[in-house]
Amino acid sequence: MLFLDSSDPKEIKDIFAWGVIAGVTTNPLILAREAGAADLEERIRAVVAASKGPVSVELVSETEGAMLEEAHRYHAWAPSRIVIKVPFGEAGLRVTHALTTQGIETNVTCTMSFNQAYLAALAGGTYVSIFSGRVRDMGYDVRPVIAETRAQLDREKLGAKIIVGSIRHILDVNEALAHGAHVVTVPPAILRKMLHNPKTDETIREFNAAWASRAK
Ligand SMILES: O=C[C@H](O)COP(=O)(O)O
User: Fold this and answer.
1) Which residue positions does the secretion signal occupy (predicted)?
2) 52 is annotated as an active-site residue
3) Which of 10, 52, 85, 193 is catalytic?
4) Does the pLDDT at position 216 exceed 90?
5) CB count, 10 Å around CB of 52?
């Protein structure tokens, strides 16, 4: 399954019309780049209106109380759609556990290892985000991280779904899915690259040219 890693309502609306995307993920870096000084609530409401399915909005507070207050504020903007993206850590696990008990969906984010992803799933995370590109930036292979996490979720029948993010190349998508990701969240530019294959373009041109020049 694919989500779109974007906070650009126009891009989101355009790509959702392809019928291939099941949700949206944002993070503070994406929002700072794409929305800048725009009002966060207005922007997230526009993202919700432009899409279908879960929309992840990430917490920027760093203490448990402030994180919970921030989470409730975001959740109220669209209770049936907004998933609270919780940065991994001790406070993050407490917040995830508390929100889960309150029936609020979470996406525990910034996990780079099996151990972290497993703890996030045990805490009750609805989703656990593993960062493909950033794990590779450290010189590690992300494929066993995804595969071992998926195997453990299945063995213990934990409800968490793995989202693989930090996608930098088309091949990251193939590998994440092949190693057990439930969802890959793809930036619009990479998704557009997935459309193209020169042999496809050549074949369509050949077919259309044959049809146009057929004997009449
Ligand atoms: O929030 C999740 C993003 O997919 C992270 O992507 P990035 O490593 O390219 O910033």
Assistant:
1) none
2) no
3) 85
4) no
5) 13
